[in-house]
């Protein structure tokens, strides 16, 4: 059934050496073949392919995507599948280890809707779809059937969202959606008011009933930011509502929780185990769960949270569907929103359009005093639970960042060039090569070679990081303040390896700062060294992605060096450097690791000549995520060609979730 130039086991080894496969992919295939005594090379090949897809964050392997003449996309194909792709499914189902969802006996590999899954991922996906559909279709606040209650809820909404010049106030519609549904998914780009909306929603819910509410985010950094945003948003709400003179204002605002935890903490980590304390048989004790930065939640984690949710509870997902998908398999938030995407066949530009059932249109229209008839759909599916915030309130003053983010998000190359050429003062382009081949803008840094581009970035970096390093050398002992100053600036790299990846840039920055006498990196741990944690240490309370600074310990007489971290609740954690779990220097970090964080000034570094494997990682979601981490300034060290190539390339994550939510 397949033709190969060598025995399949030898080919697997070669593909691993060529990095077309990981060692895990190879061993998974070999072990499964051995376990099921399958000697057919096609079986081993397919197992290694499905594992390779999973390693590349796909949930499944769509059989139609297999290139039968060159399944591993080698330069010269050494393997060919001699079956018509349409017949492949039937052929595979003849293997003992491959079955369908209807089989009485559970097989390790499942084919469903033309996709091949590992059994575990198949059950994650089907159960996540089932949970989300069930939550979305469950009736919630029966009091809204009562006209008086409906009118009073509508009046409260009108107070919270006074009329403005926009035809549709999507924040108000999102709040109403969350009042009417057990599941509400509120998405939107940076500064579109997701936190503002959820704060108003929590106020509304708290003023109507007593509830146990928990706020969570996927990482400690994102949880800390959510907590800060909710606090700020509560203050704004208190000031807005005090002008109206609402009864029990202070009491109800005080009921809105401010503390946010990580998802891991919410679910209860059991050391050295993949299981959590809370699950289907020991559900969480809460009435409402709000998950921020939901785009970072992968399929297995979403499955664990949904399983642990008590039957009566409400779930609100907040996030930006256009950001990079989760580090692990799946793109759950993007799949949930997929049915709202409309692509113009001619221009290829996409836009989002809400879909509500006629009953939901009526209810939302009554609650918001706005006619939503144009969004009625005969088959809205999960659409009744969705609301997208379209208007950014953050980027009005700092127009350049918002304009660039939008142009990249729409993969609109002429517009991207136009934005760079406008010369916005908050945008700075540094060309890798000769300066005048770039987007000729006034804010360019002149450079005549690749090294000159890097030099310009290093000059900027010394200036930016010089502030917190100077504070340390002047004997400032306020760790919170120094960490805050360090967090004003960050270099983000698209890649890990290479001169322009995290490793190379960290090295260059270390050398440049040392040459200026700002740091003394003769020892591994020196004052001012930023570190990022690379694995979880539940005993210390440090998690993958946590960032800290090595600083003299203010409580020690000798000023011994300790790693200082700000935790999700805002408190300071000090750890002896020798006790740190695996970590690395963090003047620069990957865009992936920066999700959920924001910095005053972000510098994105793109590679000069990305390899084919690197090109697959350079996507518009990656560039968009990097730009939207910047609050006031965004610099890019790159080449016009690579920036445009990346902005054109969309992330593709194979998954059947969107189909289960929108078509089944
Ligand atoms: N309807 C509104 N009118 C005016 N300003 C608003 C409105 N909604 C939000 N803002 C302002 O926009 C800013 C961002 O709001 P918010 O933090 O709620 O957005 P977000 O979508 O949660 O942002 P992030 O992407 O940081 O999570 C805040 O300063 C807020 O006061």
UniProtKB/TrEMBL annotation:
GO terms for cellular component: exodeoxyribonuclease V complex. GO terms for molecular function: 5'-3' DNA helicase activity; ATP binding; ATP hydrolysis activity; DNA binding; exodeoxyribonuclease V activity; single-stranded DNA helicase activity. Residues 586-633 form the UvrD-like helicase C-terminal domain. It comes from the Bacteria. The keyword Transferase does not apply. The keyword DNA repair applies. One of its GO terms (biological process) is double-strand break repair via homologous recombination. ATP binds at residues 188-195. Residues 17-117 form the RecBCD enzyme subunit RecD N-terminal domain. InterPro entries: Coronavir_polyprotein_1ab, P-loop_NTPase, RecD, RecD_N, RecD_N_sf, UvrD-like_helicase_C. It catalyses: ATP + H2O = ADP + phosphate + H(+). Keywords: ATP-binding, DNA damage, DNA repair, DNA-binding, Exonuclease, Helicase, Hydrolase, Isomerase, Nuclease, Nucleotide-binding. Its EC number is 5.6.2.3. CDD domains: DEXSc_RecD-like (cd17933), SF1_C_RecD (cd18809). Heterotrimer of RecB, RecC and RecD. All subunits contribute to DNA-binding. A helicase/nuclease that prepares dsDNA breaks (DSB) for recombinational DNA repair. Binds to DSBs and unwinds DNA via a highly rapid and processive ATP-dependent bidirectional helicase activity. Unwinds dsDNA until it encounters a Chi (crossover hotspot instigator) sequence from the 3' direction. Cuts ssDNA a few nucleotides 3' to the Chi site. The properties and activities of the enzyme are changed at Chi. The Chi-altered holoenzyme produces a long 3'-ssDNA overhang and facilitates RecA-binding to the ssDNA for homologous DNA recombination and repair. HAMAP family: RecD. In the RecBCD complex, RecB has a slow 3'-5' helicase, an exonuclease activity and loads RecA onto ssDNA, RecD has a fast 5'-3' helicase activity, while RecC stimulates the ATPase and processivity of the RecB helicase and contributes to recognition of the Chi site. This is RecBCD enzyme subunit RecD. It comes from Shewanella pealeana (strain ATCC 700345 / ANG-SQ1). The lineage of its organism: Bacteria, Pseudomonadati, Pseudomonadota, Gammaproteobacteria, Alteromonadales.
């Amino acid at each position: 059934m397949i033709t190969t130039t060598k025995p399949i086991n030898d080919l697997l080894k070669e593909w691993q050496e060529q990095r077309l496969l990981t060692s895990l992919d190879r061993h998974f295939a070999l072990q499964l073949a051995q376990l099921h005594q399958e000697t057919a090379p096609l079986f081993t090949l397919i197992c290694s392919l499905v594992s390779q897809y999973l390693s590349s964050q796909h949930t499944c392997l769509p059989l139609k995507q297999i290139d039968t003449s060159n399944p591993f996309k080698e330069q010269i194909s050494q393997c060919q599948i001699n079956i018509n792709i349409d017949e492949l499914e039937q052929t595979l189902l003849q293997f003992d280890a491959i079955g369908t969802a209807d089989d009485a006996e559970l097989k390790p590999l499942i084919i469903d809707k033309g996709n091949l899954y590992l059994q575990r991922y198949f059950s994650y996906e089907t159960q996540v779809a089932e949970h989300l559909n069930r939550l979305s279709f469950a009736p919630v606040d029966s009091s809204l059937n009562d006209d008086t209650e409906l009118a009073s809820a509508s009046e409260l909404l009108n107070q919270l969202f006074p009329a403005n010049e926009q035809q549709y106030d999507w924040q108000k519609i999102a709040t109403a959606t969350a009042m009417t549904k057990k599941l509400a998914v509120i998405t939107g780009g940076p500064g579109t008011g997701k936190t503002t909306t959820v704060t108003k929603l929590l106020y509304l819910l708290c003023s109507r009933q007593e509830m146990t509410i928990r706020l969570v985010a996927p990482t400690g950094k994102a949880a800390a930011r959510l907590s800060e945003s909710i606090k700020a948003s509560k203050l704004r709400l208190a000031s807005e509502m005090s002008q109206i003179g609402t009864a029990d204002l202070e009491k109800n605002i005080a009921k809105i929780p401010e503390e946010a935890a990580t998802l891991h903490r919410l679910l209860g980590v059991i050391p050295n185990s993949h299981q959590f304390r809370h699950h289907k048989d020991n559900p969480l004790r809460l009435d409402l769960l709000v998950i921020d930065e939901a785009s970072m939640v992968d399929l297995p984690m979403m499955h664990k949270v949904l399983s642990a949710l008590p039957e009566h509870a409400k779930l609100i997902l907040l996030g930006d569907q256009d950001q990079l998908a989760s580090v692990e398999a799946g793109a759950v938030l993007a799949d949930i929103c997929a049915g709202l995407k409309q692509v113009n066949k001619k221009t290829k530009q996409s836009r989002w359009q809400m879909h509500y059932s006629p009953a939901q249109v009526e209810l939302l229209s009554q609650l918001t005093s706005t006619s939503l008839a144009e969004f009625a759909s005969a088959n809205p599916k999960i659409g009744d639970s969705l609301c997208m915030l379209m208007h950014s309130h953050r980027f009005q003053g700092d127009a350049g960042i918002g304009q660039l983010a939008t142009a990249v998000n729409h993969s609109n190359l002429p517009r991207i060039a136009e934005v760079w050429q406008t010369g916005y003062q908050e945008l700075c382009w540094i060309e890798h090569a000769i300066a005048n081949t770039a987007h000729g803008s006034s804010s360019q840094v002149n450079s005549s070679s690749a090294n000159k581009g890097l030099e310009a970035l290093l000059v900027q970096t010394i200036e930016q990081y010089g502030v917190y390093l100077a504070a340390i050398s002047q004997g400032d002992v306020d760790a919170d303040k120094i960490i805050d100053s360090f967090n004003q600036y960050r270099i983000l790299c698209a890649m890990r390896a290479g001169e322009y990846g995290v490793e190379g840039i960290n090295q260059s920055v270390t050398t440049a700062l040392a040459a200026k006498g700002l740091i003394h990196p003769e020892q591994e741990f020196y004052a001012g060294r930023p570190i990022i944690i690379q694995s979880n240490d539940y005993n210390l309370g440090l998690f993958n992605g946590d960032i800290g600074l090595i600083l003299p310990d203010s409580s020690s007489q000798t000023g011994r060096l300790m790693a200082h971290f700000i935790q999700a609740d805002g408190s300071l954690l000090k750890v002896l450097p020798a006790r740190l779990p695996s970590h690395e220097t963090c003047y620069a970090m990957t865009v992936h690791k920066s999700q959920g964080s924001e910095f005053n000034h972000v510098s994105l570094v793109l590679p000069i000549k990305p390899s084919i494997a690197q090109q697959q990682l350079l996507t518009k979601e990656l560039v968009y995520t990097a730009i939207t981490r910047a609050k006031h300034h965004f610099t890019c060290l790159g080449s016009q060609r690579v920036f445009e190539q990346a902005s054109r390339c969309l992330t593709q994550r194979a998954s059947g979730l969107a189909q289960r939510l929108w078509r089944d």
